């Protein structure tokens, strides 16, 4: 096994064409992001991880009904809307919100070498998910954020080779992580643009 980011599908490798974001590749990359939370080793983050997992499953179930017709996220949503449904669209909405939360949290961490994960993700939470949550969910996330590992421990695990081989250098890790996050941010922004054009009214 390689260091974590080299062992999973990168969002940078998700094809984006005129037809939209490749659904299968996007879901595979999202699966990789779910595994990232395992490096946190915090039971409090299970609720976040499980929510993202459930939303991935919901979108994938729709995709598998007709992989060719639903080959992009945009087509999947359009097809569901034509049927008067919004089940997968709702799942996609929350999946993108969860991915955005994670993406921004790590981007804040990358931008400030001194900030701890708990503060970076607290900042991200205010920017992304907080306005959609009720009092109970805000409490759940407050608990999760307090359970973030120390920055140094997280980056050490992210760089480590799971088989005991040499860790990647910090330069290589930062390069790979920034590339991964930039690509994810681009996808989230593209889907937000899709929504603003009125083609994704449920998202």
What would you say this structure looks like, in words?
Helix content is 67%, strand content 2%. By secondary structure, it is mostly helical. A two-stranded antiparallel sheet has the order 1-2. 30% of the residues are buried.
The overall average pLDDT, rounded, is 90
Q: Runs with pLDDT <50, length 5+?
A: none
Coarse shape: globular
Helix content: 55-70%
Strand content: under 5%
Distance between the termini: 37 Å
Radius of gyration: 17 Å
Series of secondary-structure elements, N-terminal to C-terminal: HEEHHHHHHHH
Q: What structural category characterises the helix and strand content? A: mainly alpha
Largest sheet: 2 strands, antiparallel
Read across the widest sheet, the strand sequence of neighbours is 1-2
What is the overall number of helices? 9
Number of strands: 2
GO cellular component, one term: membrane
Protein name: Glycolipid transfer protein domain-containing protein
Keywords: Transport
GO molecular function, one term: ceramide 1-phosphate binding
Short recap of the structure:
Residues 21-159 form the Glycolipid transfer protein domain. The chain has helices spanning 4-7, 23-36, 46-65, 73-82, 87-111, 117-127, 135-146, 151-159, 170-199; strands at residues 16-17, 20-21.
Protein topology:
Layout: H1 4-7, E1 16-17, E2 20-21, H2 23-36, H3 46-65, H4 73-82, H5 87-111, H6 117-127, H7 135-146, H8 151-159, H9 170-199
Antiparallel strand pairs: 1-2
